[in-house]
Design goal:
Blueprint: H1 2-46, H2 51-67, E1 74-76, H3 79-88, H4 98-118, H5 130-152, H6 163-173, H7 179-198, H8 204-218, H9 251-283, H10 289-305, E2 312-314, H11 315-323, H12 330-345
Antiparallel strand pairs: 1-2
Helix pairs in contact: 1-2, 1-3, 1-11, 1-12, 2-10, 2-12, 3-9, 4-9, 4-10, 5-6, 5-9, 7-8, 9-10, 9-11
Length: about 350
């Protein structure tokens, strides 16, 4: 009898463990497919080669999965942090070594986050109510959507990326809308909404990505104004190696770097912990803010030393990870590995 009970427990444990791994693998590949175009776009928004966004979607995601707290937060480039980074570095944006400033901000902001976690200052997040967190995430979501509208309409990039700057640009340029670009984007959104309503277990995001890329390549639609990310920079691993930002840690730049990194660090922590807590309200997981601070800090430091842009917890990819059925932090690590494999195996297709 004892042997039967033991074997039953062993089977249940192994089955649960196997199911968790399968769920994490499925969520990881889905997130990776979303992360590739997002990371490249956010790097371009930061003002650097899109390849640096992909680097930031690989190493930080893996590091944060090891040292972080949330089972569902995906760490990597985000719209909010890309806008913040480009904002604090706008005075040096025209310099030839501008990317080195971006990497320096990633490293220094990571150090700030690591110190806050090490000295157990995560309790400060407790004083941020759920209403404030919900408001922050709603604002971030609106900002993301507004910033995507010019791309959805096939318009040129706005000269300003603040809310009113983008809206003004849309109003002034609405007559230049590329209907082909709009149709492709709107078709993808409609497909996602229908799939979510009628086929909740359907991997709609993956299918939309593949079909969109296939349609653009097959019909040569890049000749009709549909811009592919491949046009923004070379894709490869030539610079994915250890690097200490050169020529930026000078006395005249120190004030800019420290204040900029501090602002990016605080915004990053608010974003990451907000996403973690909101998802935790649905899963019941208890979030360790100090551990999350440490995970986010180490992820940003590691990314910065390997040519990665500043990172945070991604609202959109974390939601995809949660909806994809992720069970543990391993899903975040898997997403980083899968981005690496996608870049390794489908280098010539990444642009589409």
């Amino acid at each position: 009898m004892n042997r039967v009970i033991f074997n039953t427990k062993k089977w249940i444990f192994n089955n649960i463990k196997r199911n968790r791994i399968q769920a994490d693998l499925k969520a990881g590949i889905t997130v990776a497919l979303i992360a590739v175009p997002q990371a490249m776009a956010y790097a371009a928004l930061t003002g650097v080669n899109p390849i640096y966004g992909l680097y930031a979607a690989i190493i930080p995601a893996i590091v944060a999965s090891i040292f972080g707290s949330s089972n569902h937060v995906i760490t990597g480039p985000t719209n909010t942090i890309a806008l913040a980074t480009s904002g604090v570095l706008i005075v040096v944006a025209s310099q030839s070594n501008y990317p080195e400033f971006v990497f320096a901000i990633a490293i220094l902001s990571g150090i700030f986050k690591l110190l806050l976690g090490t000295f157990k200052l995560g309790f400060l997040i407790r004083y941020v109510s759920n209403s404030v967190l919900t408001g922050f995430l709603t604002g971030a979501a609106v900002l993301i959507m507004i910033n995507q509208l010019p791309k959805l309409m096939g318009l040129t990039a706005p000269s300003r990326y603040d809310l009113f700057g983008v809206i003004t640009h849309i109003v002034n340029s609405i007559g230049d809308t590329n209907l082909l670009v709009l149709a492709l984007g709107a078709g993808g959104i409609l497909f996602l909404l229908l799939a979510r309503g009628y086929f909740s277990s359907f991997p709609a995001a993956i299918i939309v990505l593949f079909l969109s890329g296939l349609v653009v390549q097959y019909f040569g639609l890049q000749q009709e104004g549909i811009r592919i990310l491949e046009e923004m920079g070379t894709v490869g691993f030539s610079e994915m190696k250890f690097n200490i930002p050169a020529g930026v840690f000078t006395s005249e730049n120190l004030g800019l770097l420290l204040t900029g990194a501090g602002a990016v660090a605080l915004l990053s922590l608010l974003e990451a912990v907000s996403v973690a807590k909101v998802i935790a309200l649905q899963t019941g997981q208890r979030i360790d803010a100090n551990k999350e601070f440490i995970g986010q800090g180490l992820a940003s430091i590691a990314g910065g030393f390997f040519h990665g842009i500043p990172t945070s917890g991604s609202l959109t990819r974390s939601a995809v990870n949660f909806d994809g059925g992720a069970a543990t932090r391993a899903a975040s690590g898997f997403s980083g590995v899968f981005v690496f494999l996608l870049l390794l195996m489908f280098k010539s297709w990444i642009g589409y």
